[in-house]
Amino acid sequence: MKKIFTFLGRPSHLVATIIIFMAVCVPLSTVTASTKSICPTTATTTEISIQINASSLTSNSAKPTITGTACGTKTVKLTLFKEGTTKTYYKKTNIRVKNDRWRVKISKKLADGVYDIKVTGTKGEARRVTASGQLVVGKKSKESKNSAKSATTLAIGSVPLLFGGTARAGANVPVSYLQITNIGKETANLKGFWVKQNGSASTQSVIGLTVIDGSGGSKGAIGGTEGSTPFKNGLAFVPTDSIFAPGQMRVFTIKAVMSSNVSAHLGKQLNIAVTSVDTTASPKGPFPIPGATWTIGN
């Protein structure tokens, strides 16, 4: 059974549309060290979902530890690729899921750089569910953490209130829910978001991208008509024009507009991550910020 809850209000009452399919998985970053299950079930089933903890995707260690959550599967498989390649660089199978959480230390020494990462289930329907992201290791990680600070800084993070499900033809599905705060001393202008499709689905399944702010108003869009191709080489820029006074916090939802013809993409996953933002301020966040995973269906 599918239920839709909508919460409306000012920033103190976060604006989100939460789509829940039989089960809910909360990202690891919001969970304390508890043995309680974070994947509620119905009497007969649990919706399969996999998440990577964004905070584990940046490391100074050559042998980083990657963590996340998984529902509906007892084991997961992790695969690493050098950025922009399709040849497997490292693989770890049968990673045990305990209390809906998984954890794996990379045994191979990784050179400084960026790696594409995929985590999938290992048996049955779980093999069709994939979580994707980018792992930043070593020097680049240190540089990103210690970059020069300006008087104006936008702190950007994911709000763990979005859950994937089935993305149907012609639907608008929320792929990223962000909280952005100006923690600097000057006014900042947010000009847009750079996003990347990390799932197994072709970018042609998406014909548009939109940004909605906490008041529910549209703040920007690209494409939206059948035949539009907002992604170029796997990346898309979603424009906005939002002003932040010092200390101001706002929330934004990025939505993907699905093609009316998704027959060629059925069963494939959509996972759109925010890789960076265009702003007059110094951005601070755990980039890339992974989004909700959607499976394309009729």
UniProtKB/TrEMBL annotation:
UniProt-listed InterPro entries: Ig-like_fold
Taxonomy, superkingdom: Bacteria
Protein name: Uncharacterized protein
Source organism of this protein record: Candidatus Vogelbacteria bacterium RIFOXYD1_FULL_44_32
